[in-house]
Each structure stands twice: as structure tokens, then as C-alpha cells.
């Protein structure tokens, strides 16, 4: 299998070498069908499913027949809460429900590998030794760091949750920070580039190898 490599940069956005990425994670040919299914699964899980309309039996009033069945010259009506009336019930309207569907864990892991590979195979992955932000959130500093790299749309992946870095990207619409445990297909595909903190690579391997037979 061909070696998958990524540029290694320091906190000053200078290239200091190359680093090899594990081919069994970053070198898998992506399949559009699998990625589409996983994104659909993610979106379905995020849906609240709280939309609710009332049927004619749930709308208050309308118990009395509005006029006689015959001899009025008008169409027969049984209730002013029938669907054709203004203020009546809704036919086949939404009711609270769950949109979730089952997707095997093996497929989800494979999809995550494919999403990571889709960026690595297009040379859209960078590995960072560190970031120029330490103790205080500084959007301007991080924006300059990304500008030096020539990047505007990027997902930054860190080993553990980093609230300072997260706060620094709040006002950058095409930039997002995620810890390894929160890494997902939708966010990878929704950003053009991927920056991995160096310690993240081992964590990603550990996460995607969890539960596999050796």
C-alpha cells in the first residue's frame, strides 16, 4: 500500500517536515454511497422530531353539526373542525416521532476512515506540532496562523477537548475544533481541510481500533 504522508507544521505555521499517516486509516478509497448513508444517519439523529399538528378530533369545538343535512342548498357538513374548514384539523400532519435508524458500528468506523482518507488522498491534511494559542482565546492570532497556511475552511482535531481553542474559532464561520471522541464524517466532509494536532493521530488509531480482533 502506498505511503500516506502529510506536512508537519509548527505553531508559527512553518513547514518543518513530513509525517507518515497510518495507511489503514488514511489510505482507504472513499465510497460515496457509504459516506452518504452515514451523513444521512447523523442528520436523522439530530432531528428533534417534535413537530405536531392536531387532527379534527383534537381541535376544540365542532361537536355540533353546522346546519341541516338537507334542504339548505349548501354542501353537507358534519363539523366546523373538519380539515376543509379554516381552523379545522390537519390531515396526515406530522406527529412527534424519532427519525433515527440503525447503522452498524462497522459501517460507521469504515465511513470515518473513508472520510479521513478523502482528505488525506487530496493532500488536505496537515499535522501541527502545536498552535499559537496557549492560555487565552485569541481569534486574530489563530486567523493569522491559518492565513499563513493558506487555509480558510478547516476542521481542527485535538486529542482532548480544548475550550480555549474552541472559543478562538467562534467568529470564524468555516473553522471548527473537535476532540478525537467527537470526530465524525459530516464535519470532516463539511470542511475542505483537516489539521490534526500531532498527538491526535495515535488517539484516532486507538479509537478506530477499539473492539477489533487482533
Q: What would you say this structure looks like, in words?
A:
The protein is of the alpha/beta class and 214 residues long. The chain has a domain of 135 residues: Ribosomal Protein L4, Chain: A. Helix content is 31%, strand content 15%. The protein contains 7 helices and 6 strands, in the order ββαααβαβαβαβα. It has a 6-stranded mixed beta sheet with strand order 2-1-3-6-4-5.
- Count of individual beta strands: 6
Architecture (CATH level 2) name of the domain at 4-31 and 103-209:
3-Layer(aba) Sandwich
How would you name the CATH homologous superfamily of the domain at 4-31 and 103-209? Ribosomal protein L4/L1
Low-confidence stretches: none
Average per-residue pLDDT, rounded, comes to 94
Order of helices and strands: EEHHHEHEHEHEH
Number of helices: 7
Largest sheet: 6 strands, mixed
Question: Widest sheet: strand order?
Answer: 2-1-3-6-4-5
Distance between the termini: 20 Å
Helix fraction, binned, reads 25-40%
The assigned structural class equals: alpha/beta
Shape: elongated
What's the CATH topology label of the domain at 4-31 and 103-209? Answer: Ribosomal Protein L4, Chain: A
**Fraction in beta strands:** 5-15%
The CATH class of the domain at 4-31 and 103-209 turns out to be: Alpha Beta
Radius of gyration: 27 Å
